[in-house]
Design goal:
The complex is a heterodimer of chains A (408) and B (376). By secondary structure, chain A is of the alpha+beta class. Chain A has helices spanning 37-47, 58-74, 93-105, 114-127, 130-142, 256-268, 270-296, 301-333, 341-362, 374-381, 392-403; strands at residues 147-150, 166-170, 173-184, 191-197, 208-214, 220-225, 234-245, 249-250. Chain A folds into three domains: 36-114, no CATH class; 147-254, Butyryl-CoA Dehydrogenase, subunit A, domain 2 (Beta Barrel); 258-403, Butyryl-CoA Dehydrogenase, subunit A, domain 3 (Up-down Bundle), CATH 1.20.140. Helices cover 45% and strands 13% of the residues of chain A. By secondary structure, chain B is an alpha+beta fold. Chain B folds into three domains: 8-117, Acyl-CoA dehydrogenase/oxidase, N-terminal domain (Butyryl-Coa Dehydrogenase, subunit A, domain 1), CATH 1.10.540; 122-216, Butyryl-CoA Dehydrogenase, subunit A, domain 2; 224-375, Butyryl-CoA Dehydrogenase, subunit A, domain 3 (Up-down Bundle), CATH 1.20.140.10. Chain B is globular and about 80 Å long. Classes of the chains: A alpha+beta (408), B alpha+beta (376).
Chain lengths: 408, 376
């Protein structure tokens, strides 16, 4: 990894994108070879669709990702693993694995509509009525309707079963009351999927339902929360007599926990396939920048040597993540779920993401302290990686209790 | 909580007073408000510290100081660090005054007295940049003697209080060695650009000096070894601030672990979290002992001891502080990632403090070098 290829995020002259070579990913894995025709086909498309660098400012960044999502969707490059009837290609998980790797090698950003595309869409396919699928899936795929995840509450974070938000059926509508928090991109969302209590007096996992609530209505107030990175990516969502149509329930009424568990499987599976490749691409960039910083005297040679040892360690661990993701994709093609192994992926990913974010900023020495820089921002932004989608501590509990069978 | 270093027991009263003053003067609201102002510090609070005589705690009574030594001054640094105080105290009373005491001669007395009295504030500008200097290493700042007197040229980046200090205390490369100089910071020959960083509670600036008239503060040249000794010594007040901040960060986390409930229990009852706090506490206890042992070396004039203690405590305090702050964010969960609670501010302070004097890797490299010398 000493020779790092150049970044691919800026359009090359002549309007074609330069894609990083497969060597950045590490050794070839048998079921997803580098000369696979799928890779060649997608690379061909990516080459013809160069994209500009991602802006730092949050609104512009979201707009950039949304535009990219639409561009992909227009040619059928979103939700490949979705069934053909819902606008996908019915591709298997290994194809999806290659898809994410190629996206990363193109320097492409995260899909804009993750909560819809990765979480709610697939959950709808398992638990949703035909009507709901028809109503929502096309908008998710096209990127026309943005979603957010209304699960966590002030007193229900790690302990999600403690949710108190309640919904009551009044005529043909659910009337929802309560408060959600940490709702990522709530301010950009058209729709919120809300885990709430529909059986009055119920406790813990029982009596919950997963409702779809339109964001743009008087009963929904969304307030962004400032983060340590200066972004305002997550929000408080206040539900005061918010309305949702009677039929907008994902799964059976009162069976919301089962729907939520399905959704978590997707959070730990599908989403997982994408991450190692983006990490490897970022690491290659870090290694290149470190060399530049050393030449420019921004970091001493000792510091550079220490950083290089750390980069090697990161590379090794990202390869481990890649194998976990690969294993997940192989299992998925034979119809098996991830189970608690998903928690391993999540744990490894979250811890790596923080360290990689720190390595990005450290590669430029003290410059990585200066405000308004991508590398500075990345270090702060990645601190959350071991908190969202289940903290590292909770993932360890799941591994120890469900996988290893240790007493609770 | 974290046990007080044994050596600090004699100073329990001063310690308690300092803690109380710092806690009321630098509340979270006041710190945030002050950091957001143009100068980035609270002038009223600074005046209060001056009235208390804190800038001259360690100075000789002959120039108006309290003669209480660096040890006691480090108690102040620790508490200001704990509150993330946006204050000229570290730059002026800690670094610049310390440099004058260590390297200056009679010519430095006036300046030292005025810094102690708080009538002026200073920033320390190390011409070799960050880390420890070498004889043949690059120097960002050079000093030249002209018929009209000394002038200093060059560039220095991310200088603490560089944009708001009245005076720059400059260590610059001369033809054959180094020299210690006073430069009026408010003149045209000094261009100062505030450098916005992640931590608004530390005011950093990029400086460009163009034939800036300078007053030499010591007739004899300063050797590279002496500049290294200065870096060792500067590590002490900085490490005291880092240790104090780390303790405060742990305290806030412990408080949260006692009050936040999940799964029907205070989250502090989960062993996984208890063990993490215990590990931070152990590391912090050791770091504090290091800081105050080094402060005693400063007061005893133990240059050889500081040679090894300086890089050691700088590296360890930075690591421990950063680790404590990272753990604080994680153990707070989602709320730890918001700007609303202070743990994020501590994390950002840890990032900046970890670069101010020398990055950890450079401090360890220096430690290796000094240990090898000792073994030889
Ligand atoms: C950037 C970001 C984006 C997010 N986006 C969303 C979103 O879109 N939608 C949504 O619903 N939620 C979202 N979340 C919320 C996230 O899921 C919660 O923050 C997370 O589940 C932790 O809950 P909490 O914040 O209440 O922390 P707490 O549960 O209070 O945890 C505090 C600390 O205690 C530890 N802890 C808790 N229980 C145990 C235990 N049993 N054993 C050991 N340690 C324990 C935790 O690991 C943590 O370190 C987001 C969070 C972040 C930071």
């Amino acid at each position: 990894m000493t020779t790092s290829p150049t970044a691919s995020t800026s359009p090359a002259p002549g309007g074609t994108a330069t894609l990083l070579g497969h060597h950045v990913l590490g050794p070839e894995l048998p079921a997803v070879p580098y000369d696979h025709p799928f890779r060649a086909e997608f690379r061909g498309w990516l080459q013809q669709h160069p994209l500009g660098p991602e802006p730092l400012e949050q609104d512009a960044r979201i707009a950039h990702r949304r535009a990219w999502h639409r561009e992909l969707a227009a040619d059928g490059w979103v939700g490949l693993h979705w069934p053909v009837e819902h606008g996908g290609r019915g591709a298997d998980a290994l194809t999806q694995f290659m898809y994410y790797e190629e996206l990363a090698l193109a320097g492409a950003p995260e899909p804009a509509n993750t909560p819809g595309l990765i979480l709610l869409g697939p959950t709808l396919m398992v638990h949703g009525t035909e009507e709901l699928k028809k109503r929502f899936l096309p908008g998710i795929l096209a990127g026309d309707e943005a979603w957010c995840q209304g699960f966590s509450e002030p007193d229900a974070g790690s302990d999600l079963a403690a949710v108190r938000t309640r919904a009551e059926l009044v005529g043909d509508e659910w009337v929802v009351n309560g408060q959600k928090i940490w709702t990522t991109f709530g301010q950009y969302a058209d729709l919120v999927f809300v885990l709430c209590r529909t059986t009055p007096g119920s406790e813990r996992h029982r009596g919950l339902s997963l409702l779809v609530v339109p964001a743009d209505q008087p009963g929904v107030t969304i307030r962004a929360i400032k983060q340590i990175s200066g972004d305002e990516e997550f929000c408080e969502v206040f539900l005061d007599d918010a309305r949702a149509p009677r039929d907008w329930v994902v799964g059976e009424v009162g069976q919301g926990w089962a729907a939520a568990m399905t959704l978590f499987q997707f959070e730990r599976g599908d989403q997982g396939y994408t991450d190692h490749a983006r990490m490897l691409v970022r690491l290659a960039g870090v290694e290149r920048r470190l060399a530049e910083s050393e030449t420019a005297g921004l970091v001493s040679s000792v510091r550079a040597a220490t950083a290089r040892a750390r980069h090697r360690d990161l590379w090794v661990r990202i390869q481990g993540l890649r194998l976990l993701n690969y294993r997940g994709a192989v299992l998925a093609t034979s119809g098996e779920g991830l189970g608690a192994v998903g928690s391993m992926t999540n744990l490894v990913w979250g811890e790596l993401e923080k360290e990689l974010g720190a390595a990005v900023a450290e590669a430029v020495g003290a410059c990585g302290l200066r405000a308004g820089r991508h590398d500075t921002h990345e270090r702060l932004h990645t601190r959350a990686a071991s908190i969202y989608s289940g903290t590292s501590e909770i993932q360890r509990n799941i591994i120890a209790e469900r996988l290893l069978g240790l007493p609770r | 909580m974290i046990t007080e270093p044994a050596s600090a027991r004699d100073h329990a009263e001063v310690s308690a007073l300092v803690r109380e003053v710092a806690a009321t003067t630098f509340t979270s609201e006041k710190v945030r408000a002050a950091a957001a102002t143009a100068l980035g510090f609270d002038e009223v609070a600074w005046k209060q510290l001056v009235d208390l005589g804190w800038p001259s705690l360690a100075l000789d009574p002959a120039i108006g100081g309290a003669g209480m030594g660096t040890f006691v001054q480090c108690l102040v640094h620790r508490e200001l660090g704990a509150r993330l105080a946006p204050s000229p105290y570290l730059a002026s009373a800690g670094l610049a005054s310390g440099a004058l005491v260590l390297l200056g001669d009679d010519r430095a007395t006036d300046l030292l007295a005025s810094l102690g009295a708080g009538t002026r504030t200073a920033a320390l500008v190390l011409g070799h940049g960050r880390g420890w200097p070498t004889d043949d290493g690059p120097a960002g700042l050079t000093a030249t003697e002209t018929p009209a007197g000394w002038i200093v040229d060059g560039r220095a980046e991310l200088v603490l209080d560089g944009a708001r200090a009245d005076v720059l205390v400059v260590v610059a490369r001369t033809a054959d060695a180094w020299g210690l100089f006073e430069v009026d910071a408010r003149i045209g020959a000094v261009s100062r650009t505030p450098a916005a960083t992640v931590d608004a509670t530390r005011a950093l600036a990029d400086l460009q000096l163009t034939a800036a008239p300078a007053r030499c503060l010591r007739s004899r040249p300063v050797t590279t070894d002496e500049v290294s000794g200065l870096v060792d010594r500067m590590a002490v007040p900085l490490a005291a601030e880092m240790a104090g901040a780390a303790v405060a960060c742990l305290e806030q986390t412990l408080e949260y672990l006692r009050t936040r409930h999940q799964f029907g229990r205070p989250i502090g009852s989960f062993q996984a979290l208890k063990h993490r706090c215990a590990d931070v506490a152990v590391a912090l206890t050791v770091a504090q002992e290091m800081v105050f042992a080094a402060a005693e070396m400063v007061d005893a004039g133990d240059v050889a001891g500081l040679r090894i203690a300086g890089p050691l405590l700088l590296a360890r305090s930075a690591e421990v502080f950063l680790h404590a702050a990272e753990e604080a964010i994680q153990l707070h969960g989602g709320v730890g990632f918001t700007d609303e609670v202070d743990v994020g501010l501590y994390y950002k302070r840890a990032l900046v403090d970890g670069e101010l004097l020398a990055p950890v890797a450079d401090a360890y490299a220096r430690l290796d070098l000094v240990r090898a010398e000792g073994a030889a």
